[in-house]
Amino acid sequence: MKNSEGRVNFGSRLGAILAxxxxxxxxxxxxxxxxxxxxxxxxxxxxxxVGLVFLFGLPIMIAEFTIGRRAKASTGEAYRVLAPGTQxxxxxxxxxxTGFLILGYYSVVSGWTLEYIYQALTGGLADKTPAGYIQxxxxxxxxxxxxxxxxxxxxxxxxxxxAKGVKDGIERSAKILMPALFVLVVILACCSVSLPGAEKGxxxxxxxxxSKVTADVFLxxxxxxxxxxxxxxxxxxxxxxxxxxxxxxxxxxMSVGLIDTFVAILSGLIIFPAAFAVGIxxxxxxxxxxxxxxxxxxxxxxxxxxxxxxCSVAFYVLLALAALTSTISLHEVSTAFLCEKFGFTRGxxxxxxxxxxxxxxxxxxxxxxxxxxxxxxGLEIFSALDFLTAKIMLPTGxxxxxxxxxxxxxxxxxxxxxxxxxxxxxxxxPVYINVLRFVAPIGIAVIFLNELGLLx
Length: 456
Ligand code: PHE
Known about the structure:
By secondary structure, the protein is mostly helical.
């Protein structure tokens, strides 16, 4: 479906919601959220996280939607279109660069999910001691051949979908992958909570202990909210440039926020009850799902090996699907930019982006093994990229997009986008605009400075 200017749109409102939710739901929900929750003490972290998603996350998401749909251009060009002749164009370019760098290292972890599907299917996850699982993960992730192979496979699949285009590639894949992901996440959560001894994990997730709440918990929750909602680099703004005139920005943001939070909490419900049921600590950190979980599945289904295999395969397939809908959205930001800015065909633009990402991905993957000794500020390249993008570039981008919509764009234009030119009431507008103008920029500045250790 092309609009009057010949730009392709998503075919339906549901397609738009699923594509945006696909971007948001990713490794951030199934991998990062559970270990952040584990490290920050459980339910209290979740409550704060949910509060921040609704207070800051949704208004900034609507702001990104406004920028994309109004400009009818991907994020790299949108600021130039809306504020021609100003320096705001750099915010668009920053978004493209951020997305490109995230895609590079995110694809490395996405590739790991394929290795774990393969291992689960071929019995590689069976009958190991806890130390054996650690050894297996360390040997694999520090290796050169296999992680690079899976990285290439993952990027190739992403490339294939993006090259097919907005409707036939992105929208269609979201319509297939997202329902599959929901089914898997619900089945796995049901299996996990029905394990004997799961109650401890459930109460860890649902009974808040406020004595654990420190400033750090707030800040961790905020960073997680941006990463998980794909905010701060124009991913959702690029998707919004394909929204039709009847797509309701507020309702779409609410759906994406709810779906993203739902999947994150269900992922917690998969991981913690299972971990507690076999007496494993929930605060293992980033290795939680690659080291702890295979161990949990083996122990939980010690007498029924088929179940252990089925659960492991289902879990890593879930993770791969979640990662794929996010890598597609990250790839689209750069691909659409190259098409719009330089007039490349989609296929050519996608090839350039994929080739560039292979380089970033290879460097970040090898930095966990043979190139470990190259460090930037004490971090190897993989972690340096994660730090630079998630902790510096995303908050900066989110803050600038809030300021842009709150202070720079014409008020009438902002109201028109939120109300679909007066067709909707948009009764949340006064709260929304004040969050963008004051609450979000100040709030983000606080986390930002604190993350960098500048608030003591
Ligand atoms: N939101 C994705 C996740 O939770 C990650 C992502 C970040 C995707 C930024 C796009 C942009 O995994």
